[in-house]
Amino acid sequence: MYKSIAIHTRSTYWTHKETNEEYSVVDSDDLAKEIEIQCNILENEGFEIVSINPITSGSFANGNGYVHTESVIITGRKSK
Description:
Elements: E1 2-8, E2 11-15, E3 22-26, H1 28-44, E4 48-61, E5 64-77
Antiparallel strand pairs: 1-5, 2-3, 4-5
């Protein structure tokens, strides 16, 4: 049996005053803490963590672009 959990990142967004380009920064400390919490919950439920995969998202405009981690998928496997 497998179980997957999605964790959505919390990001700060702002627009550069001179270029009007949008920027974002992922709160990596918050994400790491949430991954730890969810992994411990899965372990306590008898699941072994088999993967932690980032899901990225981005935008391109005016020849510029960015990509950031939008969420993380944690997958665990439980022995029968």
